[in-house]
Amino acid sequence: MATTTGKKSVEMVEVGARDGLQNEPELVATDTKIALIERMIAAGSRRIEVASFVHPKWVPQMADAEAVVAGLPLRDDVTYIGLVLNKRGLLRALATRADKAGINEVGCVAVASDGFGEKNQGMGWVASVETVRDICRLAHAEGMAVQATISVSWGDPFDGVVPMDRVVEIAQRIADAEPKEIALADTIGVAVPSRVSELFARVADAVPHIPLRAHFHNTRNTGIANVWAAYEAGAHIIDASLGGLGGCPFAPKATGNVATEDVVYMLEQSGISTGLDLDRLIGAAHWFENKIGKPLPSMLSRAGGFPIPSQ
Ligand code: ZN
Q1: How far is the CA of 215 from the centre of ligand 1 (A)?
Q2: Distance, CA 99 to ligand 1 centroid (Å)?
Q3: Euclidean distance between the first and final Cα of the chain, in Å?
Q4: How many CB atoms within 10 Å of residue 142?
Q5: According to the per-residue pLDDT averaged within each range, which of 58-62, 169-173, 250-254 is highest?
Q6: What Cα–Cα distance (Å) separates residue 14 from each residue in 38, 78, 128, 243?
Q7: So which residues are the catalytic ones?
Q8: pTM (2 decimals)?
Q9: CA angle, corner 98, sides to 97 and 102, nearest 5?
Q10: Ligand 1: distance of its center to the CA of 94 in Å?
């Protein structure tokens, strides 16, 4: 992606307040979540996953989704994303449009494999793809922007390696329902750069009209390398969470998302604009570590930045 000035750029999507927090064992207060989102906006985030509209029995950390959204600042330049797994979740997200700010975009999730699908959303991959298509249609009918994620695109904690052919087929079926973008997600952090390049290239070939987003977890320390591989393969929308917050309640041993500040450092040093301010991100990570009383896994919040070489 090139800007009007010719500089390369990516669009960062901040997922710390949703994917990042959903596995935190201690409930994070609603006003702390809102303060986290406000700090991310101050650091430059313009697309932010703020909540997940799932049943609180499954993800207790997201039980205050409506209260979080009700407290968000009204910003015409910020897109607030709500995750929905079914029609009921979509209706909850739509209802927030009565709030000061409200949800501007919903994200829905297909699973690439049955084992994780049954645990995470109570259905196998075929049914999850149909659900995503239904959510896209309903969202479009309501004038709500919608995008889709294909979770466990490289591997499933229960079923093992996911065949690439299947992910390509899922992307094609979802593309028929015209989401604004499709993300390939390494939900449990098993991917490596060579397989990331291959799958993004194959999906881009199969659905050339749909922008692709990359979503990586750093469970096996390949997350940041995978972001670079995805970028090189043409994915110019990148998910990341402040501090590397995260995990997945339905995927044993899965750890945090790639850290926003680590990704920003790598890309900005490489001459790729992210729109984010590294010092403010590091400050926000330190602030949040104090709030939850434990260190976060990001490297940059320990090491700090470094002058960007003139290009
Ligand atoms: Zn994730």
Answers
A1: 6
A2: 27
A3: 17
A4: 14
A5: 169-173
A6: 12, 11, 24, 11
A7: 248
A8: 0.95
A9: 40
A10: 23
